[in-house]
Design goal:
It is built from 13 helices and nine strands. The protein is globular, with a radius of gyration of 20 Å. Strands 7-6-5-8-9 form a five-stranded parallel beta sheet. By secondary structure, it is α/β, with parallel strands linked by helices. The termini are close together. The chain is about 45% helix and about 15% strand.
Length: about 325
């Protein structure tokens, strides 16, 4: 499998076989990391991380992955870069690709990362946009596979805002890898029809299905994996909390939901999560709306079905696989 010089912008661009290759690489890198086996295969190469949106997991995963592979890593936050302000996206890409072997972008519109990739002569990786979150998907698939030892034929449900980047990407990832995908959310928050239709065609090719429902009991019945995300995404105005809470309160992942699923089910969340009052936003929401938990209860988050920290760790291993696969030399 040769992915050298390929961009990693969304999973729609990758075949199931290519995704399988990246997952196998990630499993191998995780084994090496756990066993203390050095793997500085990209020693001397340099990568730039462009962050217009803050992050814990994405930044740390890219930095540690780069260091483990023997690379030099430069982090650029919005204050450190002129991109989009004094310098165009295209010119930024044309400068950075003269100095770096790969460029990561985390920020807003998918068109920005696509524009970066079009202007760059080195691989560009999507660390998150408003539309897609492909590096998160590889970590999710890896975590599911570690628990069930397979992907194909499993039953997956996403609960929450079905229009957000995580829900969109999960629908694509499941369709590509033969996992039956259900979006369980209010009809007003279902994903765009164009993407649903596209995923249904992909799912048909991989012997699985995509379904949408606003019925929590039906949507979670006998599912193997339940996934949720925060109800208001990064970058959305605080004013939407009121309407979003009203829409999504009954789509909270709680004990009743877990009891409706398969006995061996797991819970996933891309994090951060509002499962308690130990955050400033959690405290603000509690003061305004009286909620002590939001998209998931603390009981579920801290239970044995929760694999969220395995999932968070796997960001590092899967990102390492993407970097290596797109930058490795032909003889390796």
């Amino acid at each position: 499998m040769n992915l050298k010089n390929r961009d990693f912008l969304k999973l729609l661009d990758y075949t199931p076989e290519e995704i399988r290759y990246l997952l196998d690489l990630a499993h191998d890198f995780k084994k090496k990391k756990q066993e203390g086996i050095p793997h500085e295969y990209l020693k001397g190469k340099n990568i730039a991380l462009l962050f217009e949106k803050t992050s814990t997991r994405t930044r740390c995963a890219f930095e540690v992955a780069g260091y483990d592979l023997g690379m030099n890593v430069t982090f650029l936050d919005p204050v450190s870069s002129q991109m989009g302000k004094k310098e165009s996206i295209e010119d930024t890409a044309r400068v950075l690709c003269r100095m770096y072997d790969g460029i990561e972008y985390r920020g807003f519109s998918q068109t920005i990362v696509e524009e970066l990739a079009n202007a760059s002569t080195v691989p560009v990786w999507n660390g998150l946009t408003n539309e897609f979150h492909p590096t998160q998907m590889l970590a999710d698939l890896m975590t599911i596979e570690e628990h069930f030892h397979r992907l194909k034929g499993l039953n997956f449900v996403f609960m929450g805002d079905g229009r957000n980047n995580v829900a969109n990407s999960l629908m694509v990832a499941c369709s590509k890898m033969g996992i039956n995908f259900t979006c369980c959310s209010p009809k007003s928050l279902w994903p765009e029809k164009e993407l649903v239709d596209k995923c249904r065609l992909i799912a048909r090719e991989n012997d699985c299905y995509v379904t949408l429902t606003d019925n929590v009991k039906l949507g979670t019945l006998n599912r193997d994996v339940v996934y949720t995300d925060v109800w208001v995404s990064m970058g959305e105005p605080a004013e939407v909390w009121d309407s979003r809470i009203k829409l999504l309160r009954k789509y909270q992942v709680n004990k009743k939901v877990i009891e409706n699923m398969n006995p061996n089910c797991i819970f996933l969340h891309c994090l951060p999560s509002f499962h308690d009052l130990n955050t400033s936003i959690g405290k603000e929401i509690n003061e305004k709306f009286g909620l002590t938990e939001m998209e998931v209860t603390d009981e579920v988050f801290e239970s044995k079905v929760s694999k969220v920290f395995d999932e968070a760790e796997n960001r590092m291993h899967t990102i390492k696989a993407v970097i290596y696969a797109t930058l490795k030399e032909e003889h390796e």
